[in-house]
Amino acid sequence: MKFTTAAEERDGWEMISRETHFAHAHLTVVTDEVRSPARATGRRWTVVQRKAAVAIAPMTADGKLVLIRQERIPIRAAIWELPAGQIDVQGEAEQSAIEAVALAELREETGYRLAEGGELIPLGDFFSSPGFTDEHTYFFLARPVEQAAEGHAHQDSESILDCRAFAPAEIADMIARNEIRDANTLSMCAKLAARGFITLEP
Fold first, then answer.
1. Could you tell me if 140 and 42 are in contact, meaning their C-beta atoms sit under 8 angstroms apart?
2. In this structure, which of 55, 108, 114, 181 has its CB flanked by the most CB atoms within 10 Å?
3. Comparing 154 with 11, which gets the higher pLDDT?
4. Which residues, other chains included, contact 73 with Cβ-Cβ below 8 Å and sequence gap of 6+?
5. What is the mean pLDDT of residues 36-40?
6. pLDDT, position 151
7. 36 and 91: one domain?
8. Same domain, 23 and 61
9. Are residues 79 and 24 in the same domain?
């Protein structure tokens, strides 16, 4: 699998111009004028550019998924979600580098690690909100995982309040009751179910 950190100009898409409005370590706001395969004339669109990210589904030996409960400032709430994090590289990154980020985020945010003989399975990627941002996230299933003796290593910027393992039926119930609301976790659960790794039946 080839990993990239930005949407590419391809398949008849052509960049005409770009105006940068704001640049920060974590995001850039630009207005692009783009010609697409369906439109011969240029179209302007304001885009929030974000680094690529990883999201990890940590699965225990008994088939439970490990979630974290984290405070999220933009929505003023603490929610249950899968561990995830940005890929701090410029341009393209090799698969091995992306996998290393996934394993590091797993350990740092949950205190779990891949057990000896375990596997890290790539599950593709998704775009979180393609109407305004090019942010995309690479999915991984890590199984089986076990608690690391050294515990978690939360960063100062994080506010992780809890970490627990849930059976797929519990997660299905949490989704139905709107307790799980973030795009990463909802999309990952759909991917895991579609691939036959879990069954979402409350």
1. no
2. 55
3. 11
4. none
5. 89
6. 62
7. no
8. no
9. no
Q: Do 38 and 117 contact (CB within 8 A), yes or no?
A: no
Two structure tokens written together for 186: 């909802």
User: How many residues are listed for the chain in this entry?
Assistant: 202
Amino acid (1-letter code) at residue 56: I
Residues 30 and 77 occupy one common structural domain: no
User: CA 94, 95, 96 angle in degrees (round to 5)?
Assistant: 90
152 and 98 in a common domain: yes
What is the β-pairing status of strands 77-81 and 112-127? Answer: unpaired
Give the model confidence (pLDDT) of 147-200 as tens digits.
987 766 666 666 899 999 999 999 999 999 999 999 999 999 999 999 999 998
Q: Which residues of 8-46 are buried (b: 16+ CB within 10 A; e: fewer)?
A: eeeeeeeeeeeeeeeeeeeebbbebebeeeeeeeeeeee
The total number of structural domains that make up the chain: 2
